[in-house]
Automatic annotation (TrEMBL):
<keyword id="KW-0028">Amino-acid biosynthesis</keyword>
<protein>
    <recommendedName>
        <fullName>Histidine--tRNA ligase</fullName>
    </recommendedName>
</protein>
<dbReference type="GO" id="GO:0006427">
    <property type="term" value="P:histidyl-tRNA aminoacylation"/>
</dbReference>
<dbReference type="InterPro" id="IPR006195">
    <property type="entry name" value="aa-tRNA-synth_II"/>
</dbReference>
<dbReference type="InterPro" id="IPR004516">
    <property type="entry name" value="HisRS/HisZ"/>
</dbReference>
<keyword id="KW-0368">Histidine biosynthesis</keyword>
<keyword id="KW-0328">Glycosyltransferase</keyword>
<dbReference type="GO" id="GO:0016757">
    <property type="term" value="F:glycosyltransferase activity"/>
</dbReference>
<comment type="subunit">
    <text>Homodimer.</text>
</comment>
<dbReference type="Pfam" id="PF13393">
    <property type="entry name" value="tRNA-synt_His"/>
</dbReference>
<keyword id="KW-0808">Transferase</keyword>
<dbReference type="GO" id="GO:0005737">
    <property type="term" value="C:cytoplasm"/>
</dbReference>
<dbReference type="GO" id="GO:0000105">
    <property type="term" value="P:L-histidine biosynthetic process"/>
</dbReference>
<dbReference type="InterPro" id="IPR041715">
    <property type="entry name" value="HisRS-like_core"/>
</dbReference>
<dbReference type="GO" id="GO:0004821">
    <property type="term" value="F:histidine-tRNA ligase activity"/>
</dbReference>
<feature type="domain" description="Aminoacyl-transfer RNA synthetases class-II family profile">
    <location>
        <begin position="119"/>
        <end position="488"/>
    </location>
</feature>
<dbReference type="InterPro" id="IPR045864">
    <property type="entry name" value="aa-tRNA-synth_II/BPL/LPL"/>
</dbReference>
Length: 494
């Protein structure tokens, strides 16, 4: 439930979030690992779910932020009082168990429970025709640094071996599984259904209270048809798997990153800006920054004269040629990485400066249309109409794309999902850069920051970026099995 700043006695939650600067910084302060996606929604709505208030208070005290903790606690007590018997129809507050791996590891009973759950999940995967694989834990670092979203890229463990090669501990199992597929079929012509269950690794700040090692069980359908039916089949497998483990109640969120690309392509924008916005949708904080800069020519940084000739030359080149030129210049200068950015990111920034120097200011109407689109998060029964309304107001039509989304929702509901339990979120799916279209998650709100128990989507361009000569249709999902076990236990006790 959301409590919003609607009365004189209410708090300005947007102001609270702003005390940390960017939404991503506020999210990290709360231990969220979504790159600030939730915090951005809360700021737009001037709302923070009541179950997060204790974490906000703790973060404010820890970070020395001027948040009126006593006022927030008083509001929280009033809210709980309303829940507990003053005529409200809200469920009682249920304290959730720790949904993550203990820092000291698992005892025998926990291992037994995880193993039993793994067998149930594996049986669902096998029945659907998926074959088990076990990708290497160590992976070439550049593969993840150049293909993961900003949040995961910053939390990948990278190290150098004695021979000078850079490696990483896999932050997920999708890319390693795709690499295994390409080792067997470099041309990407065959169809494969692969499944896995193993650990992944992501850095967490000590204040987050989350493990750096966690378990993922998942499936990847590579080389099949790129259709709404195939997308829905993956959702059905994920649902069957978590239900086989005993989970009964959960929510479903859908998104489609291809819809954002379609909107940008149809808006009245210079071609260079279309590519720029689509390229940085994966970096929410930076995306917001460039959208603001593009609507205010006076805020655009003035490029030093020493770079003007290079920028002018880059602006008239084909994008791939321009990118090669910048990377050659960086190589000649002996630059491999700056401030945690890869050479690819540095070269992209040069190209953006070249495009910005040659472009006019973005209209505020266009920027507002983009922001309005990304702000849509609603039940699937109304979300399609809301998106159509935003598109129409911007003078474009997304009818074909929305028809495809409606068809996918119909197919998913045909698999037994209640339409009223599905939310469509236009902003969802910006963490993994390799997703190209449909994305989804299954969540248990009582787990708080660890609410996502399963998620996945379509990544038709990933195999080509890994070495295939063509795009290979692919869709998959992963289950956070430790969270699933905690959710089942919580449900059993409630």
């Amino acid at each position: 439930m959301y409590f919003t700043a609607m009365t004189n006695d209410a708090l300005s939650f947007a102001a609270i979030i702003s005390e940390w600067g960017k939404p991503a910084d506020f999210a990290r302060a709360l231990g969220q690992d979504d790159g600030g996606d939730l915090a951005r929604k809360w700021r737009r709505r001037d709302s923070i779910p009541q179950e997060w208030w204790p974490a906000v208070i703790d973060a404010a005290r820890r970070d020395g932020k001027p948040v009126d903790a006593e006022r927030l606690l008083r509001a929280q007590r009033n809210a709980v009082s309303r829940k507990s018997g003053d005529g409200g129809d809200h469920a009682p507050v249920i304290e959730s168990p720790d949904p993550e791996r203990p820092a000291s590891g698992y005892d025998a009973s926990s291992l037994e429970a995880l193993d039993a759950q793994a067998q149930s999940v594996k049986a669902v995967f096998n029945q659907a025709g998926y074959v088990p694989v076990e990708p290497p834990t160590m992976q070439p670092a550049d593969i993840f640094l150049n293909r993961s979203g900003e949040d995961i890229r910053q939390r990948t463990y990278v190290f150098q071996d004695p021979g000078g090669e850079e490696w990483c501990l896999r932050p997920d199992l999708t890319i390693p599984t795709c690499r295994m597929y390409l080792e067997r079929d470099p041309e990407g012509h065959s169809e494969a259904k692969l499944c896995y269950n193993g650990p992944a690794y992501r850095y967490q700040p000590p204040s987050a209270g989350k493990p750096v090692e966690f378990l993922q069980a998942g499936v990847e359908h590579i080389g099949g048809a790129s259709t709404p039916e195939a997308d829905a089949e993956i959702v059905a497998i994920a649902i069957d798997a978590i239900q086989s483990a005993g989970l009964k109640s959960f929510g479903t969120t859908l998104g489609d990153l291809g819809l954002f690309g379609a909107l940008v392509d149809k808006l009245d924008l210079p071609q260079s800006w279309r590519g720029r916005l689509k390229r940085h949708i994966w970096r929410p904080a930076y995306f917001d920054e460039i959208l603001t800069r593009l609507t205010d020519a006076e805020s655009m940084p003035v490029t030093p004269n020493t770079n003007q000739a290079l920028l002018a030359a880059l602006d008239v080149m084909e994008p791939e040629r321009a990118r090669d030129v910048v990377q050659d210049v960086l190589a000649l200068a002996g630059i491999s990485a700056v401030g945690g950015r890869t050479v690819t990111e540095i070269s992209e920034r040069f190209l953006e400066q070249a495009a910005g120097a040659a472009s006019a200011e973005l209209s505020r109407e266009t920027a507002d249309a983009i922001r309005a689109f990304l702000a849509i998060s609603a039940p699937c029964t109304t979300a399609v109409d809301e998106i159509a309304h935003v598109a129409k107001a911007a003078g474009v039509s997304l009818d074909d794309e929305l028809e495809s989304i409606a068809r996918r929702i119909d197919v998913i509901c045909g698999k037994g999902v209640n339409r009223n339990d599905i939310t469509f979120d236009a902003d969802f799916g910006r963490k993994e850069e390799y997703y190209t279209g449909f994305v989804f998650e299954l969540r248990v709100e009582a787990l708080g920051a660890s609410r996502q128990v399963a998620g996945g989507g379509r990544y038709d361009g990933l195999l080509k970026s890994l070495g295939s000569p063509r795009n290979v249709p692919a869709v998959g999902c992963a289950i956070r099995t430790e969270r699933l076990l905690a959710a089942v236990g919580l449900e059993a006790r409630s």
